[in-house]
Amino acid sequence: MKYYSKKVLNHFLKPKHLGKIKNPDGTGSTQNLKCGDVMKIYIKVEKDKIKDIKFETLGCAHAIASSDLICDLALGKTIAQAKKIKFKQVLKELGDMPPQKIHCTSLAEYALKEAIKDYENKSAHLV
Amino acid sequence: MKPIYLDNAATTPLDEEVLDEMMRFFKQDYGNASSIHRLGQRAREAVEKAREIIAGFLNCSPSEIVFTGSATESDNLAILGVRKGHIITTNIEHPAVFNACSHLEKMGFEVDFCPVSKLGIVEVEEIKKKIKENTVLVSVMYANNEIGAIQPILELGEFLKDKDIYFHTDAVQAVNFLDCDVKKLNVDLMTLSAHKIYGPKGIGALYVKQGVELNPVLFGGPQEKGLRPGTENVPLIVGFGKAIELIEKHKKNIPFIKKLRDKLIDSILIQIPNSELNGSKEQRLPNNVNVSFKGAEGEAIVIALDQKGIACSTGSACSSGSLEPSHVLSALGNKGHGSLRLTLGRNNTEKEIDKVLEILPEVIKDLRKVSGHS
């Protein structure tokens, strides 16, 4: 098995969704206390759809690639659809990775879930 | 494009002269050194010549050199082969010592892992304090593989020489640069490796002072006085001898390597904000640079640099199978998340270092953008 696939490398070197969103509708933040990686996902929601999504990640190449890829998967989806995105999809898209890297993809799933939760909490207040 | 190789603490390229010397024993003189025909005797002669070269380098007798399959094996033999009793080591040892000691601890032995200072150096007084009536072995590395911190082996040897305690040092990283005279250092056991000194992988040696009682870890034939049974790996032993022989010739380059190291350290700390040097700047191997960057993770730095043609290492948790950060950096109180190790070698040029100093700040800047630390 290769240490990282071409796809991981591409997402790591040229992430498409890098950055912050001003006044996001939801923010999700998560940290792996063991390895120290920190992930943040920002979402903008319009008519129940994820209209914009960005990330900031302090972590290894796999963590950065996983963040970028989960943004790819979530962009344009409805909240209900985005909630169903699993780390296994990220894993499948990115290709083989060493076992100790799989947690990077679940960290991304968790950050997205947190962002959606934050959005739902905020919108619940508005109602 | 030829990569800029700055991972010489991991392994070194094989020297051409070493390769030439070994070839004969792969091709023509393939005999078993224990065979009594002429092919075997030629192999035996070559093994003994290599042993003499290494003994000369260490200032010991050839009969005190045991060839093993790696430095890990040498370390294991030194730690596991000593009679039962209390062992003192440090918490920055190479895993080959550290884990062998942990194994003994699990088996019920008494082991003390001495802490080190913030600069990565063990205090002689700390070791002295830990000595007990039943202490049988002190094992302290000569220079650390991650941060290049040089340990007070001379002082420890001086203190331990009159005691009934064996003193082992893993000198793998030190051999290229430091005095390895075992008499001057007063060590009883010393671990060496060939592939860190431009020799082949798969061969190590252990200096075992005459009179030191050691039990084998592997059991088999009478090779290496029964301490390391198994057919001698003749070509690799020959290569090891040649690599040791070439060290003297290259010692004159040490000031240059040191100059490049200092240029790297000084420029990185000036050019890149929120960067810090891990380990002592003074008591440091001439070829070791280990720096941490806030807001950039070590493995990501290594992969990004690799894409730009620079090969180096990290002590980051992400690169270890267990997700545990480097025990060495943890021992210094550093989480090691952003550590980068650059280790110079004989073949590096100033131009290469300038190139690294051009590329590295950009890589850190990019990664800090990704992490939101810019």
Describe this structure in words.
The complex is a heterodimer of chains A (127) and B (374). Chain A has a 3-stranded antiparallel β-sheet with strand order 1-2-3. Chain A is globular and about 50 Å long. The model of chain A has no long low-confidence stretch (mean pLDDT 93). Chain A starts with 5 loop residues before the first helix and ends with a helix. Chain A is 47% helix and 20% strand. Chain A contains 5 helices and 3 strands. Chain B has 374 residues and is α/β, with parallel strands linked by helices. Chain B folds into 2 domains: 4-12 and 252-371, Aspartate Aminotransferase, domain 1 (Alpha-Beta Complex); 16-249, Type I PLP-dependent aspartate aminotransferase-like (Major domain) (Aspartate Aminotransferase, domain 2). Chain B is 39% helix and 14% strand. Chain B is built from 12 helices and 12 strands. In chain B, the strands form 3 sheets. A 7-stranded mixed β-sheet of chain B has the order 2-8-7-6-5-3-4, sandwiched between helices. In chain B, helix 1 runs antiparallel to helix 8 and helix 2 runs parallel beside helix 8. Chain B is globular. The mean pLDDT of chain B is 96. The A-B interface holds A 4, 9, 12-13, 15, 18, 20, 32, 34-38, 40, 56-64, 98-101, 103 and B 295-300, 303-304, 307, 316-325, 335, 337, 369-373.
